[in-house]
Amino acid sequence: MSQHYAITMPQLSDTMTEGVVVTWEKQPGDKVERGDIVATVETDKAIMDVEVFKAGYLAGPLAEVGATIPVGGALGYITDTAGDLAIEANEVVEEKAQTEMIPHHAGTPIVMPQLSDTMTEGVVVTWEKEPGDAIKRGDIVATVETDKAIMDVEVFQEGFLSGPLADVGSVVEVGHPMAFIVSDAGKVNDTGVTIGADHKVKESHPIKHSDTPRPASLHIPKTAPATAPAVSHPGAAPAPRAVGRKVSPYARKLAGQMGVDLKSLAGSGPEGIVIAADVARARPSMAEVAHSLPQVDVPGTGRAMSSMEKAVSHAMTASLTLPTFDVTMNIDTGKLTKAAKAQGVSVTVAIAKACSVAMEKFPRMNWAYQPVDKLVERPNHDFGVAVKSDDGGLVVPIINGIEHKSLAAMQADWNDLVPRARIRKLAPREFANPTFTISNMGMFGVTHFTAIPTPGIAAILAISATGPQGTPFNITADHRVLNGADVAGYMAELKQVIEAPEAWIAGGAPAAASAATQAKTSAPAFSIPEGSWDYPVVVIGGGPGGEDCARDLADHGIKVAMVHNEPFPGGECLWRGCIPSKAWRAAADIIRNRAHDNEIGITGTDKPKMDWAQIEKHRRWVQQSRGEMALKTDKGMKIDVIEGYGEFVDAHTVKVTSPDGAIRNISFGAAVIATGAPAFVPPIPGARENLSTGGVVTSDTIWNLANPPKKMAIVGGGVIGVEMAQIFRDFGCEILMLERNERILAEVEEEIAKTLIGLLEKEIAVVTNASIDGVTGTPGKMSVAYKSNGGEAKKFDCDVVLMATGKRPDTSKLNLDKAGVALDGAAIKVNSRCQTSQPHIFAVGDVIGGYMLAHTAATQGRVAADTILGHDAEYDQDRDCAVTFSRPQAGFVGLSVAQAKAKGIDAVEAKMPMSIDAKAMITGETDGMIKMVADKTTGRIIGVHFLADHTDTLIGTGVMMVAGDMTLTQVAKAIFPHPTQTELFGELARRILARLRRTAKK
Ligand SMILES: Cc1cc2nc3c(=O)[nH]c(=O)nc-3n(C[C@H](O)[C@H](O)[C@H](O)COP(=O)(O)OP(=O)(O)OC[C@H]3O[C@@H](n4cnc5c(N)ncnc54)[C@H](O)[C@@H]3O)c2cc1C
Q1: How far apart are alpha carbons 21 and 69 in whole angstroms?
Q2: What is the pLDDT of residues 808-841, one digit of tens each?
Q3: Helices (DSSP H) in 603-679: which residue ranges?
Q4: Torsion angle, alpha carbons of 86, 92, 98, 99, to 10
Q5: How many Cα atoms sit within 13 Å of 529 on the Cβ side?
Q6: How many CB atoms sit inside 10 A of residue 904's CB?
Q7: b/e map 40-68, b = 16+ CB within 10 Å
Q8: Backbone φ, ψ for residue 729 (5° rounding)
């Protein structure tokens, strides 16, 4: 029989008596693991995650979003049966899912957290609370010393601290209780404690000054839990079964991860079964290696090392397994010191950045040896930089993601890390797993020293005090990963990078320059081929891509011709795309917004009348004015704007046919193709045929409508189709949208799309999985025959049919083969610098596929111009953005969690519904959400996703976060004005940080 557990409204603060359900993060039927966040609830203080500690499947009935539930009341259920979407009213609910993690009567154990991969035990340094003290979520109850730092032990449950407590100074294994939390003050130090065998207690420590007798001992499991060492390979296949041996499944998994041969192991489990602990023992720990080496006895009485001293000792012993060699070079750091000062960053930070810049040519320096006989090739530059702690020891905090971080962002990280490193208050991810290490002892006046690399890095840099021949830079390297030539080459490169900082530190404005353009030194040096050309550069196409490219080139003094087959520049964006559609959207917005005026208390405005002729006049005025402005600017910048159609004659000649038929050949050194992509009409019977009558329109021809239609069929549910559907719905038109795929808005982030689709379906009819049989009729009397999902034949009569079936580059008349330019499908194939297969011919914008957006085209135009000018620039789609001008507007910048994970980034996201934002409530714009995505390792914000009114302005803040490599901490600390929707950015960053803190302590 199925068992069900209630997920109850948690009490998250003393004053909380009820909470409001804000979101469900899982759907009924979803599999739920211990520690999963299933919902968020709003308390009297904040929005909080609801975490469950019971594995199973989420089942309804779920409390509705917006419902107020008393503390302890059921929000939903967890069932142990897959496929149980909801439990019946008369079914038995076993117990509360949350309390499942507290299986005994002593209270919830406070366990020794695992604060780093290598940590197996910790020492209790202080107790910050006394037994019997009331504790709140987030209270620090103790501090513990790990092998690397002293850390706070924070708890996330309310109650009272209860014994038995681990003594100050006692060693507690990771995962073992140090103390307990009880919910009732009367139960503090309860002697009737019984602990389940699954609770691992190494030692118990009676509480001092206690009146109550303590239990003599707690259950100690015979075998310590086998923790996989840091060198394991998560995800590796379990080791094959050993013939004739019994092996536990976990032991096989661990053996697979550690590369241990099961045949050679003796089993210590029941009946000789090989268990995980046997596998863990098969590879000696650092401590075992240390103790197994020949020891030279020293007279006197030794004191026991502290765990930090032990950890250093064991790591240094393990480093004896590294076959190392040294390379030293004197480097003049004068210019770099000056440049760092001018940028307001420390020399240490500037040197770390220089090391990363130099590493681009010598990536091997960042690799690591992995037992046995493996190399880990790491692209991420996470450098540890040694800092002296206040107690005289050495701490090595890590600046993460240096390869794509600006100097300013690195300095911000450094300012945050150093004071905490000095008092050893670093989170594990802030000191664990550096990829390269830097130790600077120059300030102590040492003239030369070498440092010892530890397993996990291939090289360590030791910097000494500046002498008459410069500053000695010494690298000690692991010979299994690097050879002498590698390190010598790297040193020479590093010397060059440090001695010529002007090549990579932009003149005076590093914080403003993107890290991508700032840090690269390895750009292929391009120069315009020499020759007596008519123009050094010809640009074909005068849309956003071509025009921005031509302007950047002209601005740098390059003589450039822009061949464009229309009287005014602007391309699709100005004449058939962004601008006219947003002029219509602006008119439609007024109609839509006024409909809600009476909710706020304004009447008489909710029935605005549309004057189509004036709407069109206004739209055309905007387009004409901007076209004229653009042409004037282009000519003013001395761009030769040539009206005509361009096609290649050969790799250095373009033939231009002007509107009057005159033909002219123009020779060029380099060319840029920016010819866009027209609307694509699939071969649906009657669709192409009716384009000429106007019964069928595309995004190229819809602008010729004499009047807004009363009924319109839209074929295609992409961004353009959705924008048009809502515009015409606001203009009073009945819409049927037909989409052949399973869902519309396929290119929009899944959750944002789902929510937007839900809203759209309230105002327009959407048929997905539709197949269209044909389009017939005359303008004003059109008919679309289609089959819906079930195969039932249907007909929709309408005034006009809009084919919003995408855009596709058409290069058939460009004669690309004569120029030697290759295609990738319909699009022109380019590299990240927008170079085609013919290195002096570039292509940008819609014609190269990818995001077909005006700002993308313009950015690529500037990348091409930069490359032609010999500068270093690349287009980085991971930082690009888009807005869908629906209502509410959808938008994104950077990566979604799914995209980030596909790229191997350990990403985390949080979302806030607009319904909880004060400003959104005031204006009645509560539909939608904002989601923030961050890289867990670096804390960098890598994506922001929107479904909100005013996304078109809100997104600018997200763009700056992603483009500027901002971290969660920076955004969490930024001050956003109240009441504005921008406050949600700070909230989101703080929520993700809180989540990361919590998971780090699990
Ligand atoms: C309805 C609609 C709404 C849109 N809304 C947005 C939006 O809100 N935001 C956004 O970012 N993007 C939007 N877009 C997309 C945007 O219009 C395009 O991505 C952008 O214009 C592409 O710029 P481009 O320079 O690559 O090409 P284009 O703008 O297409 O410019 C290319 C130009 O080159 C000319 N040309 C072509 N071949 C030749 C030749 N052989 N010789 C000479 N000239 C030639 C073309 O006539 C054209 O004028 C929208 C598009 C549509 C259809």
Answers
A1: 8
A2: 999 999 999 999 999 999 999 999 999 999 999 9
A3: 612-636
A4: -170
A5: 15
A6: 9
A7: bbbbeeebbbbbbbbebbbbbebbeeeee
A8: -65, -45
- Expressed in angstroms and rounded, the spacing between residue 697 Cα and the centre of ligand 1 is 17
For residue 802, the SS3 value is strand
Q: How many angstroms separate the CA atoms of 980 and 954, rounded?
A: 10
Query: Hey, what long-range contacts does 637-640 have (CB within 8 A, 24 or more apart)?
Result: 637/551, 637/554, 637/555, 638/554, 638/559, 639/550, 639/551, 639/554, 639/560, 639/561, 639/562, 640/535, 640/559, 640/560, 640/561, 640/562
Q: How many CB atoms lie within 10 A of CB 131?
A: 21
Query: In angstroms, what is the span from residue 444 Cα to ligand 1's centroid?
Result: 61
Contact 835, 863 (CB under 8 A): no
- 3-state secondary structure at position 371: coil
Give the mean pLDDT per block of 10 residues along the chain (1002 residues).
81 72 88 84 72 85 88 87 81 58 52 69 83 85 76 82 80 78 76 35 34 31 32 54 67 70 72 71 64 76 77 79 92 91 89 95 93 86 92 87 87 88 80 92 88 93 91 95 94 94 62 36 70 96 98 96 97 98 97 92 92 97 97 96 98 97 97 97 96 96 96 97 98 97 92 96 96 96 92 94 97 97 95 95 97 98 95 93 98 96 93 93 95 94 98 98 96 96 96 86 59
Picking from 437, 462, 308, 285, the residue whose alpha carbon sits closest to that of residue 368 is: 437
List 889's β-bridge partners, or say none.
948
Q: How far apart are CA 668 and CA 550, in angstroms?
A: 14
- Under 8 Å CB-to-CB from 852, ≥6 apart: which residues? 677, 807, 845, 846
Judging by beta carbons within 10 Å of its beta carbon (0-12, 13-18, 19+), is residue 768 exposed, middle or buried? middle
Pocket perturbation via mutation, ligand 1, pick of 566, 568, 573 by most ligand atoms within 8 A of CB? 573
CA pair distance 717, 734, nearest whole angstrom: 16
Determine the Cα–Cα distance for residues 368 and 115; give it in Å rounded to an integer.
22
**CA dist., res. 929 & res. 204, Å (int):** 49
What's the CA-to-centroid distance between 543 and ligand 1, angstroms? 6
Q: Identify which of 838, 865, 867 has the alpha carbon closest to the alpha carbon of residue 652.
A: 838
Which protein residues are within 6 Å of ligand 1, measured from CB? 540-546, 563-566, 571-573, 576-578, 581, 645-646, 674-676, 699, 720, 814, 845-847, 852-855, 857, 885
Pocket test for ligand 1, best of 631, 654, 655, 675 (most atoms within 8 A of CB): 675
d(CA 521, CA 519): 6
Answer whether 369's CB lies under 8 Å from 319's CB.
no
Instruction: Output the residue whose Cα is nearest ligand 1's atom 2.
Output: 577
Question: Beta-strand (E) ranges in 479-565?
Answer: 535-540, 560-564
Residue type at position 171: V
Report the alpha-carbon distance of residue 506 to residue 508 in Å, rounded. 6
Instruction: Give the distance (Å) from ligand 1 centre to CA of residue 779.
Output: 27
> For the packed helices 347-359 and 484-499, what is the interaxial angle rounded to 10 degrees?
130
End-to-end CA gap in the chain: 32
Ligand 1 center to residue 837 CA distance, Å? 23
Triad 201, 202, 204: Cα angle to 5°: 80
Nearest CA to ligand 1 atom 49: 571
Q: Enumerate the active-site residues.
A: 479
Q: Atom 45, ligand 1: which residue's CA is nearest?
A: 541
Written as six digits, the tokens of 752 are 């944002």
Q: How many residues does the chain have?
A: 1002
Burial class (CB in 10 A: 0-12, 13-18, 19+), 71: middle
Q: Are 940 and 1001 in contact (CB under 8 A)?
A: no
